[in-house]
Fold each of these.
Amino acid sequence: MATSHGMLISNNDIQPESLVDMPSDIKIVEEPSSKIPNTSTFKLEKEDHTVANWLRMKLHQNSLVKQCGYRVPHPTQHRVEMRVQTATDGSGREVPTPQAAFVQGLIGCSGDLRQFHELFTESLEAKGYSTQEYVKTFSQ
């Protein structure tokens, strides 16, 4: 007997704690490939396309990242699997490990957030708001 799509969603076991990061959670796990050199798969728990695509774009800015892509194994699983492969770009620079490239991508995303926060704060102040007033106004 086939199950309708609506039943799959209504019978889903998604709990709030399955979406929120807890202090004891292991957020990222690396699985190095045994078949392809300089390749690892990173499993990001409790993340989705938003973070994965942003990180993928950052990794593609690194000329030593040969391949980077991600997948969401199943829509009801809040996990992203990202594969990163590094290789030389012909410049003679040392090839970083996939982990080092991944960390550089995360640092780049962190820098983007910092820049966004600064621009957002400047924009609020230019309009006469303080950050505290703005947060108070929209949290009610």
Note: Helices lie at 5-10, 49-60, 98-126, 131-138.
Amino acid sequence: INAEYMGNPPFSGVSEASICAKVKAMKYSLELSVWDEVSKNCKAFLSKLLTSKENRLSPKDALNHHWIKSAFLPESPCSSMIPTVIKNIKKFNTAQKLKKAVLTYMATQLSEKELAPLRKFFKSIDKNGDGKLSYEEIKTGLKGKANE
């Protein structure tokens, strides 16, 4: 919701590690200038989503939240923001595609000699051999590598 509504992800940082740390600690701010035009109801809704699993709204409760129900009615002040929301969705999607393209480009710049150990490691942790790594495969693989 945040990335779609604001055009930015809710947690920012200079590296993936710093972003992950903020996500784990649930550190975010709704006080930045980008939030000035966002209603209190929307901020309250986002706060109920950006919290621990135990306190987070269920999907059903989120869909029934008063901000969701009122935000997209034709007479809602938010309805005028729909073009902005659509623009922000496209902007966020473009940023994600750019990140993927940059990572792909970086990978193609490695020599076969540099790729060989990475390929070997990937295959060793891809337990089901589907060419994709699940969270569990990554976690187990990295634990095993750390113990070496």
Note: The radius of gyration is 20 Å.
Amino acid sequence: PRTFSPCGTFLLSGSADGRVFFWDWKTSRCYRRLKCHDKVAIGVTWHPVMASKVATCSWDCTIKLWD
């Protein structure tokens, strides 16, 4: 899964090991990575109004909101 930030600067992606990556899509540089889940991060999305918040979900049956 992947999604762009509301400002269009960052790309957000999930991985098979439960991590979420924040990419600067213009430079292809990984800006930040977080270990969010114990299993595959199957969904990632930016909050539609509060751009500093990100929601993730996983095969570990959790949904998390990150600030």
Note: DSSP finds no helices and seven strands in the chain.
Amino acid sequence: LSPPPMKSLVAATHKCLSRQAATRGKTREATRVSSRALRRRFSTTTTESREADTVTDAKGAWWTLQRNEYVDPSVYNTERMKIFAKSWQLVGRADQVSGPGQFVSKVIAGYPIFVIRDREGKLRGFHNVCNHRAHPLVPFDTNGKCDILRCKYHGWLYDANGNLRKAPQIELSTELKSTMGLKRIQVAEWNNLIFINMDTYADPFETWIGDMPKALGDFDMKSYTYQTTLTFEVKCNWKVYIDNYCEGYHIPTAHPGLEKMIDSKKYSVTPFSRPDSRTGKFAIHAAPQRTGSPSGGLWLYAYPNWAFNVYSWGMDVEVMLPLGHDKTLLELYYYTHSSQDAETAAKSVKDLIETSKIVVGEDIQLVEAVQRNLDAGIYQRGVLCKEKENGVFDFKNEYHLWMGH
């Protein structure tokens, strides 16, 4: 058979390619239509919701933080550097470091630190890491006594100022040795509590505290006696717990026992404005006690993560430490009033702990349920009640200020 003419082959090829191109075009268009349909079906921000956001924004709605700010591990890593490494953190009590060599250690958002009292009675703070091979100088998250700062890994020895004194079997020049000391942090003592700031360039605690003592009025921490500490590990982002702490809106529905003790309708949150940018941010929470109730409420929340909870028979100090992007450690130090005798103090601390366990337990159920829904991905953000959730909104604004948003 003779081959077909070249013109016939070219024409047939063009016809075949045209059919294939038309088919691909239809397929691509069908795929685009299908993709748009899928996006509409599964998107959590539809055209209607975006339009609704625009309308409510125009009316001045107050919004919560975005979902990703509660669930994204990369957001937490930024928080570690921008918030927890630069803010004043409550790490322990003065009675834990009352004598020379006594120390308290803490891991704050992944940063191990410790505070120790030297022989002259001065408090000194350091990152809890040896400059040789990164072993801690003292155990994590504890308190005790340490006569010498010797690393238990290879025996490197430091003095009370954090200077390297001895590196066994290693010849170091004086110049190099002077650079191998422990990394220092700022330390402050206030109201029998110990605070640290890992940023050595941050303003001193006395500046940061600002008007807080004045806002506390007659409250005097030194008139209370420490009794015990309780800890709770909570499966939620630290900001979920803070949001919950910063409002009393949920008390009538979520805390029936507390609702019987205080008048939640008159629960108020008063955020205090800074006199200048160097001072810390805090808010006073208050609610009158009901007739016949043993409990009145005065709460102080200090940004980013600690609070005083004061009642008529005692108080507790609450610290909310992130253990990661999805876990939070609650530490509560319980105190009774120093004027009480031993029997009364024992009853007071028992009542305080029982009440606290109930309220904290109810809060833990709430915030862990919230975190599960945040992780699910349906919820993106919510609208706040201006009258009842101004504390949450104030926290959001302060958070964004620190994060540079």
Note: The first strand starts at residue 89 and ends at 93.
